[in-house]
Design a protein that fits this description.
With 110 residues, the protein is α+β, with helices and mostly antiparallel strands. It contains 3 helices and 7 strands; from the N terminus they run βββββαββαα.
């Protein structure tokens, strides 16, 4: 608890899967709790860009990490796993975009 995984200036070189616990993502004026069974860092890792956010562990956690080079090897050699991962990435991205749209719409209404 309290461990910093990454700061807003760092580039993530891995995807993080939260097996147990939670992580708080803080970016500009927004905060998002990333709960158990979710992941983060996939877009920044695949796009090779800085996070623009701070990630901090907020409860006792177990987090699995797949480094970028290992991920690239896995995606090139294991087609079935690559398809499942890309589907998971797409689903997560769509969910985040929908959440962002809802937040922006709520801000406009209030």
């Amino acid at each position: 608890k309290g461990d910093i995984i990454a700061t807003d200036k760092e580039k993530l070189d891995a995807i993080y899967f939260i097996i147990e616990g939670s992580v708080k993502k803080t970016k500009s004026n927004s905060t998002r709790d990333i709960p158990q069974n979710e992941m983060f860092g996939e877009l920044e890792t695949l796009l090779d860009k800085s996070t623009g956010a701070n990630y901090m562990v907020t409860s006792p956690s177990r987090i699995r990490v797949i480094k970028k080079l290992d991920l690239e090897d896995l995606l090139e050699t294991e087609g079935a796993i690559a398809c499942r991962l890309y589907k998971t990435f797409t689903t997560a991205l769509i969910s985040r975009l929908e959440d962002n749209n809802i937040s922006q719409t709520s801000a406009l209404v209030s």
